[in-house]
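Obj.: predict assembly geometry.
Materials: sequence records (below).
Method: joint structure prediction, all chains together.
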Amino acid sequence: MNDKFYTLKKEKQDTMINGAMQIFALCGYRHSSTDDMVKASGVSKGLWFHYFDTKAGLYSFVAAYALKYAMLELSMCSIEDGEDYFDVRIKFEVCKMRMIDKYPYMPLFICEVLREEDPDVEDDIADVRERYNDMMQELLLKADYRALRKHEDYYLLTDMLDYTMDALLMNGYHSGSFSKEEYLSQVKKHMDAMKKVIYRD
Amino acid sequence: MNDKFYTLKKEKQDTMINGAMQIFALCGYRHSSTDDMVKASGVSKGLWFHYFDTKAGLYSFVAAYALKYAMLELSMCSIEDGEDYFDVRIKFEVCKMRMIDKYPYMPLFICEVLREEDPDVEDDIADVRERYNDMMQELLLKADYRALRKHEDYYLLTDMLDYTMDALLMNGYHSGSFSKEEYLSQVKKHMDAMKKVIYRD
Amino acid sequence: MNDKFYTLKKEKQDTMINGAMQIFALCGYRHSSTDDMVKASGVSKGLWFHYFDTKAGLYSFVAAYALKYAMLELSMCSIEDGEDYFDVRIKFEVCKMRMIDKYPYMPLFICEVLREEDPDVEDDIADVRERYNDMMQELLLKADYRALRKHEDYYLLTDMLDYTMDALLMNGYHSGSFSKEEYLSQVKKHMDAMKKVIYRD
Amino acid sequence: MNDKFYTLKKEKQDTMINGAMQIFALCGYRHSSTDDMVKASGVSKGLWFHYFDTKAGLYSFVAAYALKYAMLELSMCSIEDGEDYFDVRIKFEVCKMRMIDKYPYMPLFICEVLREEDPDVEDDIADVRERYNDMMQELLLKADYRALRKHEDYYLLTDMLDYTMDALLMNGYHSGSFSKEEYLSQVKKHMDAMKKVIYRD
DNA sequence: GATGAATGAGTCTTCATTCAT
DNA sequence: AATGAATGAAGACTCATTCAT
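Observations (raw structure tokens):
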């Protein structure tokens, strides 16, 4: 990519980033068309290639941008050592919702990036993806697992939470317009349900 | 579609159906290319359009075929009234695995169909999709929910099972070659984990 | 390239080959546009890429085709050992003119191929180009150089003939429609002029 | 073009002229890109169009500039009436080499201009091109043709010299970095070879 | 019925040119 | 005067679809 992108007004940068994230998030790398981004952002086709050379280059940039931004947000959501596991996970989701104010499609896009398998971009995003996953792991390890560990194979249960969060997020985006409140309410309900059966004794 | 498709030898019908399902399952409707199906099935390009007019027509047909076939299989897996909820769900998964012998990509394809949102096909598959979902509901209602119902919002927990089964299935297909045994083992492990925390008293 | 190209009717093959050679000969590799070939040949854009994948692939194919065809023609123009050097060179030019009946732009195209420097194709044509040059050398070595050799640095004079033939050919094509008779007459006049000053004693 | 170009510092004028000549000489009118000129000269893209409106306008200007400059140089190389024909031609080549100090690509560019056939610029350069050719003719007519004229159709031989000089010049530029000494040595060798066969009696 | 040659609209990418600063 | 961000038409290439055989 062309570093002069950063000399653009932050506003325009974000217009482009949001345009790209929206289309990529909804359509995936391959099926996203630059024309759609032109329509979504109002930024002319030539400019995308002026800064990002190729569609793959654009994808890699926006993917890295989103994951780094997410890591920054995560680093600021003050996870304490020994905090309850479910509280930590809810903080993660709240954190995602904070991104939405500036980058409405970022949470969905991140979800897409973590699943993307197109050979044109997979190598380019492997690194940040790994760093992001590592950070999630690390933060989660601060949590208090005592109640969970009473259950043999408790990680199967946490996996199910992962799958559930992703599914809820997608449902949120794919049914009309995304509502942060609605999403968080769903998240909390599911999290609580799981928490109750686990913490019960 | 052209009804003469049914006059083809069953073997050839299945060759085409499998070719289409494989590509659609792996790439989704839009990103699937007819050339890929030609390669995957060895059936010439002209023939696909001879029987199915358009890619959308082909998709709708195969989607309907797969869901109907699945419903047939489900109807034959003898869910008894009052059977334990988790046993029923495992029967569903076993049932999916049975399809694989004749149609290796059918479970993944069904998963894809239920999520497909491309406007070119969404309307055409809405009906069967609904019928399939209804049948799943109906069968599930035969199950014994007593243990579950002790938990307020137990349906949140069953939703999580849904999301988990889908995720496991996709993982199975996207990591090399699919193994029925491996998949069922994963399914049982996760189901058991959930069952234990729920049935514990 | 796709070998099925050879299963096309020879007529169509030649239509495409001629369309490509014309544009490539007149514009060079880079500046040639596939749209121009579509217009020149009446063959649709998709078909070019069906058989040749890329513009570079098309160029390499047509270049190899032309040079091989030229070598075939050369092999049939019966150069005898000990034939007069200038007679041999005129035979070469007559041979070029014979190609024109089936492939009107082939001589100019060959001239273009031998000068082409675009990195996208240079490697792909290096081999045939070398073989062609080798064959020209080999055939020329059959000629009777005795009169020439009386002149120190006679190869400088033959180089000048090379440059002259190329220039005459280009002039022929670039001034309206190419005339075989006019070209051969020019060639003979120049060749004679050089021959006279050299053979005079 | 915008006459204010001449109010620029001569140094900057030459930077732009050299940048344009280099790219045009190496790539021809059509294949030359303004971005390449920006890179080659360090002058921003906007400025080129500020002074020259279009690429064609720039080309026409630089072509005229080069040919006029060449005519000026030629006028200063003191061709005497009755000087030997070959000496005159060598003076021409020496004259070209003198240009290289200020304008490294000018000789190649002139060669390119005289062959350029792109319809976008051909009309615009026709005039200067003709004047340049006329001047060359005129200067050449001062030379002593007596030895040449003994040969019927001697002009065919001088044509061959033309073609040869052009070819040598191009070889010089296209094989790594151009060497004035090497080029002049080649020129003299070829000229001598021709001279010997012609002047021998 | 079966094939794959043939088409052209659509996608990614380049590049001359414009324009706000 | 000078810059380079911004534009859109044009070029390379893809792919669903048609059609002659």
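Conclusions so far: Residues 4, 7-8, 12, 43-47, 50 of chain A lie near DNA strand F (CB under 10 Å from a C1').
To do: check interface contacts against the pulldown list.
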